[in-house]
Design brief:
This protein is of the alpha/beta class. The chain folds into two domains: 135 residues, Response regulator (Rossmann fold); 181 residues, Methylesterase CheB, C-terminal domain (Rossmann fold). 34% of the residues lie in helices and 18% in strands. Helix 3 links the parallel strand 3 and strand 4. The longest helix is centred in the middle third of the chain and has 16 residues. Pfam families: CheB_methylest (PF01339), Response_reg (PF00072). One of its GO terms (molecular function) is protein-glutamate methylesterase activity. It catalyses: L-glutaminyl-[protein] + H2O = L-glutamyl-[protein] + NH4(+); [protein]-L-glutamate 5-O-methyl ester + H2O = L-glutamyl-[protein] + methanol + H(+). Its main location: cytoplasm.
C-alpha cells in the first residue's frame, strides 16, 4: 500500500480551534496534487490530514484503520478508479462525506453527476487556467468546513434544533404543484425522493438544484431515468404539465407566470441569498400562482436559500416539508426553514415522498 496513513508532525501550531479538527483523507494518484491539496488544507488549523492514498483500493484499506470526516476523491485514477469505487468508499467511510475534487468535475458532467447521484456530497474542479480567479483554496476550505462540521460527532456540533417544537399543520386537500429545492448533496436526495414517489401524482413538478450550466442536460437525463418521468431543463413559456419535471437552468431562477395558464418564466433578478438559481423566487411564484395548493420541499444544502421563499409560500397558504438532519449532507437550508417555524414536517426523502403522495388525488400508488 502506498503511504496511506499520514504521520504526525511536531511543529509550532496556532491555538487550536474550539471545535476538534476536521479529519480528512486525500485520495489522488498524483503525488503533486496530494502535496498541493495538503499544503492548502494544513494552512488552516480547522483541519487535520488523517490519511492519504494513491488509489481507491488503498483508500478503502486505509478507511478500515482510520476515522475521517471528509474524503477528497479524484475520479481519474488507476485501477478501479474513483467513480466505480465510490459506493465502496462511501460504505468504508462509515458516515464521512465524500467530496469529488477532479478535473472531471468541470469537463466530465456525466461522471460528476453520476458521482453526486451515488452519494458524493459535493464536487469541485481542480484549479486550472482561468478558474476561480485565485480563490480555489478559499472555496475548497469553505466547502470542506461545511461538510466536515456536518459530519462531526454530535458532542462537537452546535446544539441541535428542538425537533419537538410545534410544526405547522399540513392541509389534507390535494396539491396543485410540487416545488423542490436542493443544493449540496441534493442530487442524491432527489434520487431517493423520486424513487419512493409514485410514478403518477397528477401535478407539475418544479426543481431548483444548485448546479452549473454545463451539467444541467446531463442532470435532467439522469433524473428522468431515476424518477421514471420526463425531466427537462425549463425554458421561457413552457407549460406546466402533470408529472413532468421542469428544472431550473444553471443561470436563471425558475418561476411561474399565471396570467393565462401556468407557464415558465425565467428571471435573473438578484436575490438576498446570492444564489442563481435560487429557491426563493420559485417558492414565491408558486405561492402567488397556486396558494394553498402549493407544496414546497427543501432538501439538503448549505446556507439559507429557500427560507425567504418558504415564508411567502406559508403566508399564501402553502405548505413546506424539509429534509431531516440525519439524512442531509449539509443541514443548512432545511434548518433555516425549520428554525423560522415554517415547516410542516421534518423527514428523510423516502418518507417525504409518502407525505407528498398522501396529498395527491390518486393515492393508489402510495406505498
Amino acid at each position: 500500500m502506498e503511504r496511506a496513513l499520514a504521520t504526525s508532525r511536531d511543529r509550532f501550531q496556532a491555538p487550536r480551534p474550539t471545535r476538534r479538527p476536521i479529519r480528512l483523507m486525500i485520495v489522488d494518484d498524483s503525488m503533486i496534487a496530494r502535496a498541493v491539496l495538503s499544503r492548502m488544507i494544513e494552512s488552516d488549523g480547522a483541519f487535520e490530514i488523517a490519511a492519504v492514498a494513491g488509489t481507491a483500493e488503498d483508500a478503502i484499506d486505509a478507511l478500515a484503520q482510520v476515522r475521517v470526516d471528509v474524503v477528497l476523491l479524484d475520479l481519474e485514477m488507476p485501477g478501479a478508479g474513483g467513480l466505480k469505487s465510490l459506493p465502496r468508499i462511501i460504505r468504508a467511510a462509515a458516515g464521512a462525506k465524500v467530496m469529488i475534487v477532479s478535473s472531471l468535475a468541470e469537463e466530465g458532467a456525466e461522471e460528476t453527476v453520476a458521482a453526486l447521484a451515488m452519494g458524493a456530497a459535493d464536487t469541485l474542479p481542480k484549479p486550472g487556467t482561468g478558474r476561480f480567479n485565485g480563490r480555489f483554496s478559499e472555496i475548497l476550505l469553505s466547502k470542506l468546513k461545511a461538510l466536515g462540521y456536518a459530519a462531526a460527532p454530535e458532542p462537537t456540533r452546535r446544539a441541535s434544533v428542538d425537533l419537538n417544537q410545534p410544526l405547522r399543520p399540513m392541509p389534507a386537500d390535494p396539491i396543485d404543484v410540487l416545488a423542490i429545492g436542493a443544493s449540496t448533496g441534493g442530487i442524491h436526495a432527489l434520487g431517493v425522493l423520486f424513487q419512493a414517489l409514485p410514478k403518477r401524482i397528477g401535478v407539475p413538478i418544479l426543481v431548483t438544484q444548485h448546479l452549473p450550466v454545463p451539467f444541467m442536460s446531463v442532470f435532467a437525463r439522469q433524473l428522468g431515468i431515476a424518477a421514471h418521468r420526463e425531466a427537462i431543463v425549463a425554458e421561457d413559456g413552457m407549460k406546466l404539465l402533470p408529472d413532468r419535471i421542469l428544472l431550473a437552468p444553471g443561470d436563471a431562477h425558475l418561476t411561474v407566470d399565471f396570467s393565462d395558464s401556468p407557464t415558465v418564466k425565467l428571471t435573473k433578478t438578484p436575490v438576498a441569498s446570492g444564489c442563481l438559481p435560487s429557491l426563493d423566487p420559485m417558492f414565491g411564484s408558486v405561492a402567488a400562482a397556486f396558494g394553498r395548493g402549493a407544496l414546497g420541499v427543501v432538501l439538503t444544502g448549505m446556507g439559507r436559500d429557500g427560507a425567504e421563499g418558504a415564508s411567502r409560500l406559508a403566508a399564501g397558504g402553502g405548505s413546506i416539508l424539509v429534509q431531516d438532519e440525519a439524512s442531509s449532507a449539509v443541514w443548512g437550508m432545511p434548518r433555516a426553514v425549520l428554525e423560522a417555524g415554517l415547516a410542516c414536517g421534518v423527514l428523510p426523502p423516502d418518507k417525504m415522498a409518502r407525505r407528498i403522495a398522501s396529498r395527491t388525488e390518486d393515492q393508489s400508488g402510495c406505498k
